[in-house]
Model the fold of this input.
Amino acid sequence: MKSEHPSSPSLRDYTFFESTTSICPQCMNTVAAKVVVRNGQVFLLKYCAHHGEQWELLEESAEYHLRKRLYDKPGTKMKVHTTVSRGCPFDCGICPQHDQHACIGLIEITNSCDLRCPLCYAGAGEGEHLTLTTIERMMDFFLDSEGGQAEILQISGGEPTLHPQIIDIIRLAKSKPFKYVMLNTNGLRLAEDKAFVEALQEFRGGFEVYLQFDGFKEQTYLQLRGRNLLECKRQALENLAFAKIPSTLVSTVSGGINEEEVGKIFLFGLKQPYVRGINFQPEGFFGRIPDIGKRKRVTLSGVLQRLEQQSSGMLKISDFIPLPCNVERVAITFLYRSQQGGFLPITRDARIQDYLHLIDNTFAFTIEDALKNAGRSITDIKASLDCCKFISDFRHIIPFNFFAKSKQRKMEYIDENTFRLSVTSFIDRYDFDIKSMQKECVHVITPDLRKIPFSAYNMIHRGDKT
Done:
């Protein structure tokens, strides 16, 4: 008689990692979701009562995603201005559910812009300028919301250099106790108006230009910005270097358009005088391009994979650490100039996890800040040991006499010998997960004096005047 064996139960093609809350992109209601690992990648698996099961790519590297938790730390408290009613992300202002303070406060001083970028999240074009009085009130609100110790103010738009009082606005910002002031610009005026660039020299020290720079192909600029802007970008960089004004290149990475240019952008930026770093931003699906069907999503870890593949062996994914203030959506590394003249990642020879308690919840982290934190109490034996260990691990990038240098000499050393690489992945209605939203540390300051996480602002609150 033939024996029969029950067939083996079939297994799911994913591993259930954790639960979260997401959003259905069709009805914009919050929905339960799973974070799952499948084929080496991480996905959100959502369930909407009205629109069914939905899959969305969260990270292209499961390995990177799983090690994020090793770098997480408690968020920094800040003032709250709204109450919880509908729940995250609908009560922004900022509400008590938000877990992290604002590392960067962004003020859009104008809606006017001299480009019509197809992917613009702000939908900028013809628009009004905010008054200097309103802008100062927004600056003071940001400072107060951070207990008087706001770190980075980013002056944005629209295109902020079109504001007729842009120099006065930057001067006003520099008169207040912000650690850094950034001018977020497409660079057209920087390329065309050398007198304007020279006027920016007044602000050197705690000031830099955040310059949009997406690649080298004509098609890249036509698809992302509507115009071929490469020569304009090169001229802007030349004018900034002549005026000795530091800048950071900001590259939107879009699937099928410029994802194969990230390595070239990195190698180019490394060679430019007074370019202090690059921030890569995977394209978010809001603004003028809300439909994810038009693009293949590139994720944070996907950018890191491409940098490793395209950087001629200079970078590895393991060189990047999740930034402790927002491990979910920001990765960073610093490079230093070796004695042989090339650049090497600081993190390659050090266990950054050992120093998380020395790193503030901030985008503006510096080696000098970490040393001050390590040695803040000379009577604390552990703190003294931390400081000595930190100095020992980083002796290859910290000159013996660094802290005896003048402020000007420190600035020059940093400009010439260090380079910052970061990846910031903003959240849209497709890849929304509640932890990422509540950890987001780039906040928009609104004229009606609310502080709203950048992603929530562009998903839901832009144009909301209530």
Observations:
- The longest strand covers residues 15-23.
- The two ends are 78 Å apart (CA to CA).
- The chain has a mean pLDDT of 86.
